[in-house]
Amino acid sequence: MAEVKKSAPGGGGSSGSPKSGGGSPKGDRTGGWTRFVTARPRLTLLVALVLTALAVLAGGGVADRMGSGGWEDPAAESTYATEALGHRFPGSQPNLLLLVDAGAAGTDAPAVAAEARRLAERLDAEPGVDGVGSYWSTGSPALRSEDGRKAVIAARIAGEEKDAAAVLDRIAPTYRGTHGPVEVSLGGGLAVRHEMQTVIQEDLLRAELIALPLTLVLLVMVFGSAVAALLPLGVGIVAILGTNAVLRGITEFTDVSVFAQNLTTALGLGLAIDYALFVVRRYREELAAGADTYTAVRATLRTAGRTVLFSALTVAVSLAAMLVFPQYFLRSFAYAGIAVVLLAATAALTLLPAALVLLGDRVNALDMRRLLRRGRAPGQDSAGAGWARAAALVMRRAPVFAVLTTAGLVLLGLPFLGVKFGTADDRQLPVTASSRVVQDELRDGFPGDPGGGITVLAEGEATPAQYADYRERIATLDGVVRADGPVTAAGGHAYFTVVPEGETVGAEAQRAVAELRAAPAPFETSVTGQAAVLVDSKDALAERLPWAAAIVVLTTLLLVFLLTGSVLIPVQAVVLNALSLTAMFGAVVWVFQDGHLAGLLGFTPTGDIETTLPVLMFCVAFGLSMDYGVFLLSRIKEEYDATGDHEHSVRFGLRHTGGLITAAAVILAVVMVAIGTSRVTNTKMLGLGVALAVLMDAMVVRSLLVPSVMKLTGRLTWWAPGPLRRLHDRFGISESDGHNLSADPGVEEMSQKWRETTSLRG
After folding, report:
1. Which stretches within 506-601 are classed as H helix?
2. Contact predicate 173/79, CB 8 Å
3. Range with the lowest mean pLDDT among 132-146, 238-252, 440-454?
């Protein structure tokens, strides 16, 4: 590892300007941090242990405080109408459905009708339950199955999501099951969301039980040493437990989606392992080069430590972009993602150095690959020569690899051009879930959807004739089958129920929402229902998507410039990262929308993709791609600063990080696939989709596309105009800052103390 930068001949970039040896401000700051985190390593680890224990207590029961919704825009017209209707007309917005199965006797049998009315009266008397109605009280054909064997009792449980779930937990055992001549099952939106939350918690526990042992095995294979393998796993566990405590605190102030826990586990293990891999690998390289423990720790923090910090910032920025959206489903992933990234980086840069100081060269203990290594030094990269040869081959045929790889990635992404956006419903659950069974019965066996349709809220005084005229007008609109109502209340409030053509949230229903909102009326109208919520959600995403994209792109350009001092490399990073996501988006449509592999993967295709999922997957996968990109670019930049040889630096970077990035990607993919074993379709899509994106980025983009593109751009890769060069010289971040460790009296003093302590222990 070269300690002093050399001028890059003709490079013209900031990396080509030499910097002085000892006395570098960056080196001094790094040395100060090293002394801070390693001066009392046992105390550091003890404090971390205490804080982790407190996090376990603080984060306990966090899942019970989370919600399973969050796809709607809280400022949208549909949200306002839903809340107003729930307050004034609870029966218009049922979220609990009791499916009453009368069997062969039929719903109109006297004994069946009497029992159903008794159940409805009892439900109406329950605290927290409003707007109870049924087939037996209204005679509505929409509440009776076409075969006459089943009918529905509908109700609304009022209150916030968590309060309503508590009421459901209390009353469900009373109503579910056999009651005289009828069998009762529970469905409706609230029951679906509540069961989804339970399934997600169960699946997350199973994913952790799958991922942790597999991750440990892979880490042992990567490091050889069982001791070294345990360090990244420990960092990941600390990050996960700490993030759960953070999320528990956030639930005191705002809603948080239960889906965010999946991201906590995935990123907590994945990124913590990435960062710890990078740090431990560099530390072992320094030991193998002859450095003592303290010098190796300081060199590691000065190089790999800066890269880890920089990488964490890039990932956090990508995830923070989701904060611009109003849906708390997306914002929850930003809360969880930012917390887990920063905690993983903090643990990797604080706890890990302290542990390494205590371990010394015992980090290589319990070598599980001794027989395979044949005496090779522990820090040696056995696959490094192969990566260097592969890089050389790619650069010799750079145009071919660049064109073919780009064309292949674009081809894999083509199915996304046919994407159709929808909303999550009960079909996210497995077919055996009790609430899903009820919803399937309602969807397939009833002439209408008791919990669906479109509702128009009318506010303002009107005469019966005006109401009737409005109903007749909206009944003739495109996409509308019929309009019923009005149901009126005091104060000039009424509502109409509109049955759209086709699926509840299909294209016809969405067009009907637009027609209803444009229809003239003698009073104020607000439109809600599942189709209206979807329309408003898509509008909110479309309005804020440019802002989110601008945050991700501009901050990525800035951060990569600060790392490299180049104008071209940041642009390359954004474009190549975007290309790495094409396979993921194409697969999402081909598999989950169109239904290919549905039987193998165990989900029900609905013909659309939940609207917020592509945004979430982009932010997560883009951030992870930048994570690997930073690892590679930082090592290339370090060598280019030292030698000024562009092609050699690219080969060097791949030689020293290719195996590391691939190992990290495989481990993260294992974690994401474990998440993808979930029985909830959206979680399955997130886990498997991001796993594919990570593997494509590490094995295709970083291995083939990056070296071929950097070969084509040549020395121009490192160019920057004069003002930007000076900006980078002042504020830039680099692994190689020209600080000579041997010339630093503080380092020598600490190294001497460490050697004396080791000698005394011996």
Report:
1. 507-518, 530-564, 568-580, 582-587, 598-601
2. no
3. 440-454
**Can you read off the two tokens belonging to residue 639?**
């060598």
Taking residue 379's Cβ as centre, other Cβ atoms within 10 Å add up to: 18
What is the spatial distance between Cα 281 and Cα 291, in angstroms, rounded to a whole number?
A: 14
Question: What's phi and psi for 640, nearest 5 deg?
Answer: -65, -40
What was the pLDDT predicted at 456? 93
CA distances, 275 to each of 37, 309, 352 (Å): 17, 9, 10
Question: What are residue 456's DSSP bridge partners?
Answer: 496, 527
Which residue do the tokens 């086709």 mark?
502
Fill in the DSSP letter of residue 525.
E
Which range (57-66, 81-90, 332-341, 693-702) has the least confidence? 57-66
Cβ neighbour number for residue 382 with a 10 Å cutoff:
13
C-alpha dist (Å) from residue 347 to 51, 302, 304, 442, 476? 12, 16, 14, 51, 63
- Burial grade of 464 (CB within 10 A; 0-12, 13-18, 19 or more): exposed
- 3 state SS of 289: coil
Contacts (Cβ under 8 Å, ≥6 apart) of 465: none
Q: Say how far apart CA 591 and CA 234 lie, in whole Å.
A: 35
Nearest of 118, 191, 91, 106 to residue 151 by alpha carbon: 106
Which H or E element spans position 526? strand 524-529
- The rounded mean pLDDT for the chain is 84
What DSSP character marks residue 127? T
Residue 558 structure tokens: 């800035």
Distance in angstroms (rounded) separating the CA atoms of residues 435 and 176: 11
Give which of 738, 705, 721, 734 is closest to 566, Cα–Cα. 721
Least confident of 415-424, 596-605, 751-760: 751-760
Q: Concatenated DSSP letters for 455-514?
A: EEEEES---HHHHHHHHHHHHTSTTEEEEEEEEEETTTEEEEEEEESSSTTSHHHHHHHH
> pLDDT band for position 233 (50/70/90)?
confident
Please, where are the H alpha helices in 251-324? 260-288, 293-300, 306-320
* Residue at token pair 């095995």: 217
- In this structure, are residues 149 and 107 in contact, taking their beta carbons and an 8 Å threshold? yes
Cis preceding-peptide flag for 546 (omega within 30 of 0): no
373 pLDDT higher than 80:
no
Contacts of 569 (CB under 8 A, 6+ apart): 560, 561, 633, 717, 718
Residue 163: per-residue pLDDT? 84
d(CA 696, CA 698) in angstroms, rounded, equals 6
Cβ–Cβ < 8 Å for 493, 459: yes
Distances (CA, A) of 426 to 61, 171, 242, 516: 25, 21, 32, 26
Phi and psi dihedrals of 416, rounded to 5? -65, -20
Nearest to residue 690, comparing CAs of 638, 748, 618? 618
Band of pLDDT at residue 17, cut at 50, 70 and 90: very low
Q: What is the rounded average pLDDT of the residues 535-560?
A: 91
Question: pLDDT above 70 covers what percent of the chain?
Answer: 88
| Sign, Cα dihedral of 559, 560, 563, 565 | negative
